[in-house]
Amino acid sequence: MLTHLDLNKILCLDIETVPLYADFNKVPAIEKEYFSEKTAYQRKNEISPEDFYTNAGIWAELGKIICISVGYFVPQTKPREFRLKSFFFFVQSL
Asked: DSSP E strands: which ranges in the chain?
């Protein structure tokens, strides 16, 4: 199915995120309110904002990036070789 693709022209990226604060109790009140309003459509009032906070990393304004990985195929090697480099960040939790 993918035989027509030139793997030498493909770059793979992966970004890992986590919530901005380590625990929902550490989130400032105004941000708790914002998070509650922003996620209401997904929670459908079945899950509390506190229980849903583990998903906060998927929103740019509520999360932080902890790792970016880049991968590519090396064209000169037989068999084909895939190289991967990860850039990770040590961030003190808030």
From this structure: 11-19, 63-74, 81-88
The alpha carbons of the chain give a radius of gyration, in whole angstroms, of: 19
Q: In this predicted model, what pLDDT tens digit does every residue of 26-71 receive, in sequence order?
A: 999 999 999 999 999 999 878 999 999 999 999 988 999 999 999 9
* Residue with token string 């000169």: 76
The neighbouring-strand residues paired with 73 are: 82
**pTM for this prediction:** 0.74
Contact 80, 30 (CB under 8 A): no
Write 46-49 long-range contacts (CB < 8 A, 24+): 49/24
What tokens does 47 get?
């899950």
What are residue 40's phi and psi, to 5 degrees?
Answer: -55, -40
Q: What are the φ and ψ backbone dihedral angles of 6, each rounded to 5 degrees?
A: -90, 100
Which residue(s) pair with 14 in the sheet? 69
